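Issue 218. Parser rejects a valid record. Input:
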Amino acid sequence: MKVPLLNLKLQYAQIKDEIKSSINEVLESQQFIFGPQVESFEKEIAHYTQADHAIGVSSGTDALLISLMTLKIGKGDMVITSPFSFFSTASSISRVGATPIFIDIDPLTYNISPRKINEAISCLKEDQIKRVKAIMPVHLYGQCADMDSIVKIANKYNLKIIEDAAQALGAKYQNKDSAELFHHAGSRSDFGCFSFFPTKNLGGYGEGGMVVTGRKLLADKVQSLRHHGCRSQQEQYYYDDIIGINGRFDALQAAVLKVKLKHLDQWTTKRRLNADNYNKLFKETGLVSDIDDHKLEGSSIGLPYVEDGNYHVFNQYVIRARERDKLKEFFNQHGIGSGIYYPLPIHLQQCYLELGYKEGSFKEAERAASEVLALPVYPELTGKQQELVVTTTEQFYKKK
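Output the parser choked on:
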């Protein structure tokens, strides 16, 4: 029995008729860019994320880029973000001419550490602090960063917030000041940015992204920037007041995602149940320390940590593993898929060496890059497949 890291064919088989019907509506209309399918899906995402406005764009990367452009962040400016993320988190900052300021991560959640943000800002000179314009936290693997603390820092230093929520559609966190108040990923900042890359929990059949915001003026500017800077009215499409990009969201992707959005909560519930089952099975093996099951001290593996009050959507189920690379190869030999997100922190990527960071600059991000391993967690995964993943892990470590 093989266990792929992700099996989209199983998902498609369940919704094939709905998908074909929705796509056919677009084909019959012959309106492939913008149009009623896009507008309808934008409204549904705004409602789902509890945002006032949602604007579809061409990818999660362009969602970040357009958000930065909307805030007029550019040459000479600085943006605080995590070095442990997909490359576009930082590259979007660089593409507008600004400089990413990397801050190390929390070793449990893998998200940017608010404490270290405060420490880093306090070490800056006054003229440098003035150049810092925004914080771009990443809700990695499907769990929200500590937004309560990040919002306080942003308010203190008058900084904008752009949430990279590419992996976290549907994730929520409890407000620390109100036990009854939950915030959705992307809803508590100037912008929330989502990706509909096919491997995401809500994945399209190609590229796609979304920007959400609570401010109409910002939403209007995003709408213009995604369409070369054109005025929004149809009859004025060839009049450009600002310089934008081709960041449009196409109707075929909207048609697919409208269907899939109806199933998202059910799929998320199954992902969370799969994560719970993994936790149970791994603890039964004895590979996990009873003292702290999230770290590697005294363990062969460390389990994912979920912050109290967080609703984790498990875009990835990520363990820490001793001899991670050898375990991954062992999985490959036994037909089990796994993934490393991410093997090299952004500050050590060749194109960012000029910023002066070096090995040892961000120890937690670097340690995570050497230890993390994502296991299959997709909704269609069976209990038998999970048992095989766990017993294969057990076999690997018992051979040592």
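Fixed in the parser; the record now loads. The mean pLDDT is 95.
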